[in-house]
Amino acid sequence: MNVAEPQSSLARWIYRAYIAVFLIYLVAPLVAAGVFAFNDSMFPMLPWKGFTLGWFFGNSGEQIGMFHDPRLLDGLLNSAEIGLMVAALSVLLGTCNAFLFERCDFPGKRFLYIVMIIPLVIPGVILGISILLLASMVANWASNSLNIELDLLRPGVFLIVLGQASFLTTITSLVIAARLGKFDISLEEAALNLGASRFRALRTVTLPYLMPALVSAFIVAFLVSFENFNTTVMLVGSKAPLTITMYDRMVRVGSTPVLNAVSFFLMIASGGLAVLSLFVQREKTEMRATQR
Amino acid sequence: MNARTGRLTLILLLAPFVMWIGLLILLPQLDILAISLRRQVTFGHYTFSLINYINFFGEPIYWGTLLHTAFVSVLVTFLALVLGFPIAYYIAKIARRRSRAALFLICLVPLWVSDLVRAFGWIILLRETGLVSQFLQDIGLVSQPVEMLYNETTVIIGLVYTVVLFMIVPLVSTLSALDDSLIEAGLNLGGSRMTVMRRIVVPYAMPGVVAGCIIVFMLTAGSYLTPILLGGKNGMWFTGLIYDQFITRYDWEDGSTFGVLLLVFTTVAVWLGLRLTGQSLASTVAKRGE
User: Fold this and answer.
1) Confidence label for B2 from pLDDT (cuts 50, 70 and 90)
2) For residue B39, which phi and psi values (nearest 5 degrees)?
3) Average pLDDT, integer, range B242-246
4) Per-residue pLDDT, B27
5) Residue A2 lies in a domain
6) Would residue B3 count as lying in a domain?
7) In A2, A193, A217, B96, which residue has its Cα 20 to 30 A from A92's Cα atom?
8) How far apart are CA A37 and CA A55, in angstroms?
């Protein structure tokens, strides 16, 4: 018998019913967004007019599928490009931070650790506007005083990458530091005793151990970047990522089933990546179990 | 390792941290603070002034929107806690191994789906021509289409939906660590189920509760898509005002002022939450990484 569970069967039954209702609440909007991608109709609503893949692959008449819509495709590619850069940058920074807080001792360490967490509790919109304003100020100043055009600091991919990395670095730092904290330092010492250089010990012992955390931090950063809207919308230039394109379409054109197709695609892709990241995490716990 | 290489390592590792925090967090925040405290005299020339803040508090729509956002954020946080706690408790303490993993996975997957997709799903369900309206007509409860978008209740339902998973995840991780024998001991010593819940389970879960509340509150107060898409044009939401100032009016001074006020407001709320519960940022939010 499970002591944590309610004892009367009525209470248990109500509890389970609540869980079921909650799961329906979780899933209903996702199902609604996804299922109409396959409806052969001009509008994402009932009645059901038959199954079609036209909103994905269609290329005729009014039914232009997402893979033949140049703006949506561009958005997808831009999002992927931004996501990869953000993930690489924030994993790199996160790894440095992990070593800084797990391996070094210095005055003010506890304070700086809190500082490292702060970006997570700043609303995304504020990160977006503040980086936009600072970058614009520097770019304006360079343009007026030095006659140099710093196009990188104008709204665009570079600023989006910086804006998203500003808070994702906190997440990657925490993920990587958690794993580095469990590393048995005597393994590294053994490598050094056996004559390895510090760099070699790092490359052949420590980094392979960290790899699951690095991969999972990379995937998490990529996913969050891919779906981010609040910070991105302030920094976007001519190359818009998918969420911005989709939002524009929703607000200006109204919803057509091609947006359901994009939603379905995003759900499958991010769901798949999320499961992959959990899988990497599980590998890591299994490895830890076998080490003991 | 001698002292000199140790020092060099420290400097090399500290440099990226300082660049990150300095250039991407600290300087930009100071910049919007500076911009919020200035007034344009002639083109390109500015002077220090509190006029933007005075304007803010002189305009009931502005501070009313901030108050409204604050109130809804607190309400959403409370609802997410009340609705999420039983789910987290079930996953952590009652479900058997396999169904636990499955339930947790179901709870995690929507976490990774963009806000935009979730709001879009709600629109398809709740608008006049949507599924719920259609369903109510089919079963004969209503005789004509009903519009369920663009009202406060829908915004709150949508916001709770968007953030409740961020409540459940930290709760599950703290509750999982609670040993069943503590509950058993409480029951054996004559505590009722309510007492055990109140005196043992909830205090034990407190770091998770605080972490969840902070994250949920921040996400709600800073959210944009859900309140704007589900609440429509006249839904009063503070981030909506900020975007308006920047995107449609190009008013940097007012926009920065609103941004600073939102930041001050959320910081004070988080600080109060930590203070009242005796937790710290490191013991709550940072646990997310593990």
Assistant:
1) low
2) -140, 140
3) 88
4) 95
5) no
6) no
7) A193
8) 6
pLDDT of residue B288: 44
Strand partners, A39: A51
Beta pairing, strands B38-42 & A63-64:
unpaired
What SS3 class is residue B39?
A: strand
Q: How far off is chain A from B182, nearest CA to CA, in Å?
A: 10
Enumerate residues 160 to 179 of chain A having a beta carbon within 8 A of any beta carbon in chain B. Answer: 162-163, 165-166, 169, 171, 173-175, 177-178
- Per-residue confidence (pLDDT) for residue A292, from 0 to 100: 38
Verify whether the Cβ–Cβ distance B286 to A174 is below 8 Å.
yes
Nearest CA in chain B to A45: B130
Residue numbers of chain A with a pLDDT score lower than 50: 1, 289-292
Q: How far apart are the first and last CA of chain A?
A: 31
pLDDT score of A254:
72
DSSP state of B23: I
Q: What confidence tens digit (pLDDT) does each residue in B172-194 have?
A: 888 888 888 888 888 888 777 78
In a domain, B122, yes or no: no
**Residue B87 main-chain phi, psi, to 5 deg:** -65, -45
Separation of alpha carbons A80 and A75, rounded Å: 9
- Angstrom distance (rounded) from CA B3 to CA B26: 31
Read off the CATH number of the domain in which A103 is found: 1.10.3720.10
Q: Do B184 and A3 touch (CB under 8 A)?
A: yes
> What are the structure tokens assigned to A169, written together?
């670095």
Chain B neighbors of A171, CB-CB under 8 A: 288-289
In a domain, B23, yes or no: no
- Residue B41 inside a domain? The answer is no
For residue A121, give how far its alpha carbon lies from the nearest alpha carbon of chain B (Å): 6
Alpha helices (H) in chain A, listed in sequence order: 9-35, 54-57, 70-103, 109-117, 124-141, 157-181, 185-193, 198-201, 207-227, 232-235, 242-252, 257-291
Q: In chain B, which residues have their Cβ closer than 8 Å to the Cβ of A118?
A: 25, 281
Among A70, A68, A124, A82, CA closest to A237: A82
Measured from the Cβ of residue A192, the count of other Cβ atoms closer than 10 Å reads: 14
